Amino acid sequence: MANSSEFGPLTPAIEVAAAFPNNIHGKTVIITGVSPKSLGLATAAAFASQSPANLILTGRSPDKVEAAINELKSIYPNVKYHALILDLASQSSVRAAAAQLNKDASIPSVDILINNAGVMAIPTLTTPDFATNHIGHFLFTNLILPKLIKAASTSSTPTRIINVTSFGHQFSPVRFSDVNFTKAGAELPESERPEYQKTEFFTGKSHADDVYYGFFSYAQSKTANILHSVALNQKLWEKHGIASFAVHPGAVDTNINRHATPSDIELALKRVKELGFDSAQKTPGQGANTTVFAAVGSDLRPVGFEGDHARGAYLADCKVDDENVAAFATNKVFAERLWALSEELVGEKFDF
Ligand SMILES: NC(=O)c1ccc[n+]([C@@H]2O[C@H](COP(=O)([O-])OP(=O)(O)OC[C@H]3O[C@@H](n4cnc5c(N)ncnc54)[C@H](OP(=O)(O)O)[C@@H]3O)[C@@H](O)[C@H]2O)c1
């Protein structure tokens, strides 16, 4: 059986999938955010290569999901593909999609859920990244959880929930007292302030006086993705045997940069390189490797805790990466606070 030491940053996701065929063959996998030229599509292709029973592909644009499925069908015609349309920024859309899936008797259980969809750094505070990247996924995950619990209770292969986060989480904790950006930095409690020095290093400006800055909004949402995984492990691992991991895919050439200016991206990549990280842009087929490994890697250990901090919850380049995850993103007290805040924002409590 292959293990993580055989994979590197540029290992194609399809090779990772091929190393764990039994964890994919005959399984049901859901991936959010599947459009042409996206990580979601590359992730789907890696799963499709190992004959899952069902690949449920979600997106907000029916045309894009259909185009992605047609692309997959041309290479892997024998897989059963399902399009599930949901707009993560709309709780009613998420509820409708979850209800559609829950009443589909042909899908009794779900083995793997990959919360991959995302937007980055919307320039103005219209629909915040937090609503799409975290709250939409929080609600969808909880609503369909009975199907994951069913898989965990009947299958000997891993049942996992993967949250696709980013190294960029490091720029901001969750602003529990100001999740919707109404305050500049000086007005925030110290524990909720963005990392201004780091921001200046990466973007050329600290943005300390900004009430809203798109990259802080993205960073908050990506920290929330990691804390969501921490909370899911606490609630689901011992009781149901369901694990959750948060994954940084690397710098990947997709449509994610659509809201960012090319000069910002260029400077950020230059800085990443100066810090000694591999800043080579990965192809989507390489960028999906850690997601696939987190979803099906047999040698991944369950997330543990050292004091208040989760260990083993954050992965990058096909391995656990406890060194490059911010302390505010692994704190189990913050994970509980985020869970409570998210329940408040969706108007529903969840107990499993
Ligand atoms: N690419 C990178 O360098 C990089 C680095 C770190 C982390 N990530 C993370 O990787 C994940 C995938 O991003 P990507 O690079 O593949 O970007 P992408 O090409 O822009 O794909 C994002 C996907 O999310 C979907 N999406 C956006 N808003 C949505 C909404 N409100 N409801 C439902 N779906 C929505 C998009 O749909 P539309 O096509 O209809 O917009 C698209 O399918 C994201 O979570 C991102 O934060 C990417």
Automatic annotation (TrEMBL):
The GO terms describing molecular function are: oxidoreductase activity
Which Gene3D superfamilies does the record match to this protein? NAD(P)-binding Rossmann-like Domain (3.40.50.720)
Sorted alphabetically, the keyword list is: NADP, Oxidoreductase
UniProt-listed InterPro entries: NAD(P)-bd_dom_sf, SDR_fam
PANTHER family named among the record's database cross-references: RETINOL DEHYDROGENASE, RETINOL DEHYDROGENASE 11
The family classification in the record reads: Belongs to the short-chain dehydrogenases/reductases (SDR) family.
Specify the protein name: Short-chain dehydrogenase
